[in-house]
Amino acid sequence: MRGVVALTGATGFIGSALARRLIQEGWWVRALHRSPSPPSHLTGLSLEWVRGTLGDRDCLEGLVGDADVVIHCAGVLRGITDADFYPANVEAVSRLASIAAGRSPAPRFLLMSSLAAREPELSPYAASKRMGEVALSKVSDRLSWTALRPPAVYGPGDRELLPLLRLMLHGIAPIPGCKDARFSMLYVEDLAEATVKWLTGEIREKRAFELDDGHPQGYTWYEVVETFERIRGRRVVHCRIPESILNLTARLNKMAASVIGYSPMLTQGKVRELRHPDWVCDNGPFRRVVDWTPKVRLEEGLRRTLGVTLN
Q1: What is the sign of the dihedral through the CA atoms of 131, 197, 65 and 188?
Q2: Which of 3, 47, 48, 214 has the highest Cβ tally under 10 A?
Q3: Is 294:155 a contact under the CB 8 Å cutoff?
Q4: Cα angle: 88, vertex 90, 91; to 5 degrees
Q5: Distance CA 230, CA 19 (A)
Q6: What is the distance of C-alpha 195 from the center of its chain?
Q7: Superfamily of domain 4-151+186-214+281-295
Q8: Cα–Cα dist 256/208, whole Å
Q9: pTM of the predicted model as reported, rounded to 2 decimal places
Q10: Strands (E), 36-100
């Protein structure tokens, strides 16, 4: 066994991919979960489960325990106000980091942040991701840490992008972003591999690193549409969604959320994120200190995600 990894977010899309990859590499994974029983999609994995929440310090003390590494992958994606995101994306980071920094020797700490942290003024979510990184940096004198900022992450098991990807596979591509916007993407298994490489590397810098799939200057929406046309072997009809329609939908979501009490994904903050013209990553700094190369390009990743074989 290589060592013990304390992992939050193991039941989520990215966290479950990390858990599987870490176990394959010989790490013992101690994972946090809230429900009475572990999730069915992780049944069969040799995970040590710790039941509790990110707000329970005693539970987090047990999670960290004698871990060699702490990976905080849990986070909140949906919400409207700062209060929706702050507990998981900021307070939990601070709580976990202080617990880890109090150990002797202190475990290494990896924060799974987001590229949105680069533009904190756009939304409460983006601001919370930046504040989470700041909270981690406050214990820099006692803790070796790294934050990873992946862009849009996709792959089997993803629930956020999958409806849009399936719609494109069926020949309809609604485009919510600006005409000239560019963005990077990353297949989930490549993100998991980057984490494994970080574990075995020796990063001395305490900072955030961007990650992407290596495609120069990212993608435009129309390049994504062209990729789907190759996958389908037929034309994909695309239509740009006006910003006014997105904002109207976001306002209706806010009204519905106040009545029903759910957390919407499309909010006015999310619209600003979608309309931002530059979400292109530069993984050069990370690759200079970690021996990692992304392997899955967009077409292959989309085929794997959607279960589409080569013609």
Answers
A1: positive
A2: 47
A3: no
A4: 75
A5: 33
A6: 12
A7: NAD(P)-binding Rossmann-like Domain (3.40.50.720)
A8: 36
A9: 0.94
A10: 47-51, 69-72
